[in-house]
Specification:
- The chain is mainly α and about 140 residues long.
- The chain contains 6 helices and 3 strands; from the N terminus they run H-H-E-H-H-E-E-H-H.
- Helix 1 runs antiparallel to helix 4 and helix 1 packs across helix 5.
């Protein structure tokens, strides 16, 4: 298990999650999900300069989340879905753990609630009324 920390997959995921950690880069990816765009087009809806957007694009490109192509003087960025799919797949592997834990918690709470209901039913009427007053 520990040998996976140095694996190529782990290195790729580290780059992807690091790139996704920044809200500006997530906003850029959201724009690119609508279609390819130049730096100028990406800068328009964002409250940052073109050099700042360019720096963010370099991080996204290093994480392989985007690719860039040149057409004469225009350099367009394109969203690459594969790294996002790999990150989603990695998260999905842990979903079953979360779901199992939540299912066990639900079952435990149901048992606890059932026991609490059983105890209230067994109380004499005066004690039951007293416990209701204490709760309020």
């Amino acid at each position: 298990m520990l040998e996976q920390f140095g694996s190529e997959e782990t290195a790729r995921l580290n780059l992807v999650f690091s790139a996704l950690a920044d809200p500006a880069r997530r906003a850029i990816l959201a724009e690119l999900a609508r279609g390819d765009a130049t730096v100028t087009e990406l800068t328009a809806p964002l409250p940052m300069s073109m050099p700042a957007v360019s720096r963010h694009l370099k991080v996204l490109e290093r994480a392989a989340l985007i690719s860039r192509t040149s057409d004469g003087r225009h350099r367009s960025s394109h969203l690459e879905p594969t790294p996002l799919r790999e990150a989603a797949d990695w998260i999905e592997r842990y979903r079953s753990l979360w779901d199992d834990s939540l299912d066990r918690l639900d079952a435990h709470l149901a048992v606890m609630q059932e026991r609490a209901t059983d105890v209230e039913v067994d109380l004499p009427p005066t004690e039951s009324r007293l416990s209701e007053k204490e709760q309020t």
